[in-house]
Amino acid sequence: MKKKLLLSLWAISFLLLPKTLLAEDYSDEEYWEAHCEGNQSAECDAYRAYLLEENRNTINELEDALANLEEEFDNAVAVANEAKAEIDILEAEIATLNGEISKLEEKIAVLEEDIAENEVLVEELNQRVLTRMREAQASMHFNPYLDFLLGSTSFDDLMRRSYGVEAIVSKDEEDRDELIETITKLDADKKELDDSKAELDSKRQTLLESQAYYYEMEETYLAIADEIEAEIIDKQNELDSVRQNYSDILSQIGDISGIPSSAGLLSPAPGASINEGTWYYNSGGVHLGVDYGLGMGASLYAPANGVVILSADGCPSTGYLGDGCGANIGGVYAGGNQVIMIVSAQDRVYGVSFFHLQQGSPTGTGTIAEGDYVGRVGSSGNSTGPHCHIELYYLGEGDMADIQNDYLLRDYTLGFNCGWGYAGLDRLCENGVGAPCRLRPELYFGT
Asked: Which of 171, 187, 230, 338 has the maximum number of C-beta atoms within 10 A of its C-beta?
């Protein structure tokens, strides 16, 4: 369970200062800035500790706001990209429909030409019939067909002429009926094509409306993304400014470097037996520290000079297997009541974690000297009996203040960025991994 090392600012604020100084009213910033410029007094150190806390809180807020903005930006771009994808799909569908409509229009044009030609032929037949009727009505004689029949020279000739006239009239009617039937069929075919074209036109219109909607969506969300991107830049600039201010304040505090490095690491649990060692439980499973067996309420001590950066208290003194209490009180998940510190021995800087302490026993944040009281053995959190689980980290060589400040500014976790569970085995100092890395406490503390 990752937690930011926010607590070093509290550690700094307690370095050489009585807690009562932290209750000072710092609302008149102009006074305090002028008063503490170049001033390394205790009250000015307290003021700088206050500024660090304020800046760290601001950094956290800005980082959260920046993360939210980046998420909003990614969401806006994702929606815009989805809209663009829909536009591309619709464009392909519209292109397909346009091709189908174009083919239908070509077929309709051909049918219209055929219909027009057949209508001309029908009109010609109609005109011929009308002409014959007019000629028959205009003459006092019988119509030409009858004259033609009366001109027969014999009965056989009459019958022959009669059949001929009937065939001519029948042929005209037959041709006209066939043409009318063809026109009727062409009209039906044209209507079917017109209906199909109307359906495709309607579908195309629907697709065009959908495409217009997605164009608008794409434009809207790209504009939103642009606005968010501008906010991200502003927020990032603000965050950089606050971080720089934070760094400037840290550079004014030299008191931490005044803590002397211890001659060596003392045992935090004198006389204790080792119930479980690193890196695995006796029964199997990863175990990233040492379980020191002592009776309930036995005292634990600081192994070297340093600073307590976290003190978490509030879990019942007796927990149980699977009890996750720890993260809920600001510490490591399942660690119960706990103390985490940074110490220095022989100019080498270490992180030390004490877990499963008795409720009400953890020492507060601030400076601590080797052999000072840390807390009492308990069984809080994920524990089945009184013991203290201790983890040891190598953080680097040199000035403890520089290393601690580096951790403050670089978003480290309560596991000193060494991971948990099986991932915690990836950063073992004994495998040649550089700082930060995990050490075997039993090799450094003994019993």
From this structure: 338
In this structure, the chain runs to a length of 447
Which domains are seen in the chain, by residue range? 21-253 (1.10.287), 273-444 (2.70.70.10)
Whether residue 356 contacts residue 390, with contact meaning beta carbons closer than 8 Å, is answered with no
Give the pLDDT of the chain (447 residues) as one tens digit per residue. Answer: 333 333 333 333 333 333 333 346 888 888 887 887 766 566 776 776 677 777 777 877 888 888 888 888 888 888 888 888 888 888 888 888 888 878 878 877 887 787 777 777 667 766 765 565 555 555 444 455 556 555 656 555 555 555 555 555 566 667 667 767 776 777 777 677 778 778 878 887 887 888 788 888 888 888 888 888 888 888 777 777 766 666 665 555 445 557 788 999 999 999 899 999 999 998 888 999 999 999 999 999 999 998 887 888 999 999 998 898 998 888 888 899 999 998 999 989 999 999 999 999 999 877 789 999 999 999 999 999 999 999 999 999 887 777 776 665 555 678 888 888 888 999 999 999 998 999 999 999 855
Closest C-alpha among 275, 265, 426, 245 to residue 346: 265
284 sits in the region (left: phi over 0; alpha: psi -120 to 50; else beta) called: left
User: CB of 307 within 8 A of CB of 366?
Assistant: yes
Nearest Cα to Cα of residue 7 among 340, 314, 328: 340
Neighbours of 24 (CB within 10 A): 12
Can you give the pTM of this predicted structure?
Answer: 0.49
